[in-house]
């Protein structure tokens, strides 16, 4: 009698994992489709957004692994991942549609948190339902799983948002000419040399302002725009034009200014430090993307590497920078304050150490904080301490109206910087 082997083949154990992976990819596609529907067709997929989506999903899966390990139900991992990400795909489509059709529901932070809480409760209900255990065990395991899942979900949303998977049509640049990296680096000495040759010396006994503006991310033109516009405002308010340096990473205009890399930044700071007198003020403005204790100097073709808070602090000290106003405009920029604060420095950050800032869009002229602080507040109030308060009021109103998590800009004033600022402003 012939026996027929009906046991699963060797590939079957991997099938649940493949199905789970397919569900994750489907959730990305749903998010991308929702963003296309909101912003309109004709844009492009964002590599940065893809990286954030992968990181977001990895954090959520890690939370499921931890939660299921704690309750001894690792056998449910593939099923939970599959169903959770399928549900997430549906919820993301629904929320983007709601955001487009009924934006008034997202006009306050309380409403945003309420909508987010409902979404999370639906996801938690699905996970707890899948446990299927006796009542007492089911309740205990459900509480553990829910707590771990909500914690990791909070981390995923806070640090790895997926709102930039899609670059809208107005911001997409499909016709860009490839950057000539060899020519880019060959031009650095000429570009930096020209700026340094034009950098005016200090006038002994006269309080003057030296300025540096740096835009760190090449792929979004808003940072180059801020470098130029902030430099013009600092010249208009403090007469810093003859004592100003500009560094910028720009995909569209790679050789307009020296690269915003760590070597050029250190050199620029050293040149300012060598010229700055004790009565003078340095105004340093850095704008880009950011992470905790990290500021993006991002020009992939040029191989630039991000700047850490500790590295920036060391550069400032090595350069001998004297009294300074330092403005760091980036997500999580408040994390730089502990490293660079000093008695003779006023440090301003666009966001708290655990918060994102907003408005980093290709094609925009300003980020939200840059517009509020420089373009509006500082134009009418040259004292940066007072301008900061005006900017915070505007940013707070705008973020509340848009239903965004507050960025909570920060300021740290050293005890010795006030007198220097007062002398400069008195001129």
Characterize the structure shown:
The chain is α/β, with parallel strands linked by helices. It has two domains: 15-167, no CATH class; 181-426, 3-Layer(aba) Sandwich (Rossmann fold). Helix content is 53%, strand content 10%. A hairpin with a 2-residue loop joins strand 6 and strand 7 (294-295). The longest helix has 25 residues, at 15-39. The termini are far apart. The model is unreliable at 1-11 (pLDDT under 50). This is Peptidase C13-like protein.
SSE arrangement:
Blueprint: H1 15-39, E1 44-45, H2 47-71, H3 77-101, H4 109-131, H5 135-159, E2 166-167, H6 181-186, H7 188-198, E3 209-215, H8 222-238, E4 244-248, H9 262-275, E5 281-287, E6 290-291, E7 294-295, E8 307-308, H10 309-319, E9 324-329, H11 337-340, E10 345-349, H12 368-380, H13 384-401, E11 410-413, H14 417-426
Parallel strand pairs: 3-4, 3-5, 5-9, 9-10
Antiparallel strand pairs: 1-2, 6-7, 7-8, 10-11
Protein name: Peptidase C13-like protein
InterPro entries: Peptidase_C13 (IPR001096)
Pfam family, one: Peptidase_C13
The proportion of residues in beta strands is 5-15%
Q: Tell me what the CATH architecture of the largest domain is.
A: 3-Layer(aba) Sandwich
Number of strands: 11
Biggest pleated-sheet summary: 6 strands, mixed
Q: What is the overall silhouette?
A: elongated
The average pLDDT value, as a whole number, equals 89
The low-pLDDT segments are 1-11
Looking at CATH, which topology of the largest domain would you report? Answer: Rossmann fold
How many whole angstroms does the radius of gyration measure? 26 Å
- Which H/E pattern describes the elements? HEHHHHEHHEHEHEEEEHEHEHHEH
């Amino acid at each position: 009698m012939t026996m027929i082997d009906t046991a699963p083949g060797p590939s079957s154990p991997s099938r649940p994992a493949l199905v789970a992976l397919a569900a994750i990819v489907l959730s990305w596609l749903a998010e991308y489709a929702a963003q296309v529907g909101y912003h309109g067709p004709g844009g492009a997929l964002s590599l940065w957004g893809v990286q954030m989506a992968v990181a977001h999903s990895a954090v959520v899966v890690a939370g499921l692994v931890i939660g299921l390990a704690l309750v001894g139900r690792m056998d449910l991992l593939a099923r939970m991942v599959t169903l959770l990400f399928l549900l997430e795909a549906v919820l993301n489509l629904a929320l983007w549609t709601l955001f487009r059709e009924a934006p008034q529901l997202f006009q306050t932070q309380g409403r945003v948190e309420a909508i987010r809480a409902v979404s999370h409760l639906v996801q938690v209900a699905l996970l707890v339902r899948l446990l299927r255990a006796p009542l007492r065990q089911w309740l205990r395991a459900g509480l553990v799983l829910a707590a771990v899942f909500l914690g990791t979900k909070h981390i995923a949303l806070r640090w790895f948002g997926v709102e930039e998977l899609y670059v809208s049509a107005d911001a997409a640049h499909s016709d860009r000419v490839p950057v000539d990296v060899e020519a880019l680096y060959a031009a650095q000495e000429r570009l930096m040399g020209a700026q340094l040759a034009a950098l005016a010396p200090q006038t002994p006994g006269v309080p003057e302002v030296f300025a540096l503006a740096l835009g760190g991310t090449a792929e979004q033109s808003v940072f180059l725009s801020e470098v130029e516009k902030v430099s013009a405002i600092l010249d208009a308010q403090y007469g810093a034009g003859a004592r100003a340096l500009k560094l910028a990473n720009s995909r569209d205009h790679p050789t307009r200014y020296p690269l915003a890399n760590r070597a050029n930044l250190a050199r620029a700071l050293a040149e300012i430090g060598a010229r700055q007198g004790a009565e003078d003020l340095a105004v340093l403005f850095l704008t880009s993307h950011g992470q905790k204790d990290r500021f993006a100097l991002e020009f992939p073709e040029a191989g630039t590497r991000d700047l850490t808070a500790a590295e920036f602090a060391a550069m400032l000290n090595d350069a001998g920078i004297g009294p300074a106003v330092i403005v760091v405009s980036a997500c999580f920029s408040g994390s730089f304050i502990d490293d660079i604060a000093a008695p003779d420095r006023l440090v301003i950050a666009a966001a708290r150490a655990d918060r994102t800032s907003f408005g980093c869009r290709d094609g925009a002229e300003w980020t939200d904080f840059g517009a509020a602080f420089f373009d509006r507040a500082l134009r009418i109030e040259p004292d940066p301490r007072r301008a900061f308060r005006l900017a915070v009021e505007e940013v707070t109103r705008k973020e509340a109206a848009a239903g965004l998590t507050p960025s909570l800009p920060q300021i740290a004033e050293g005890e010795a910087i006030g007198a220097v600022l007062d002398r400069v402003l008195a001129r």
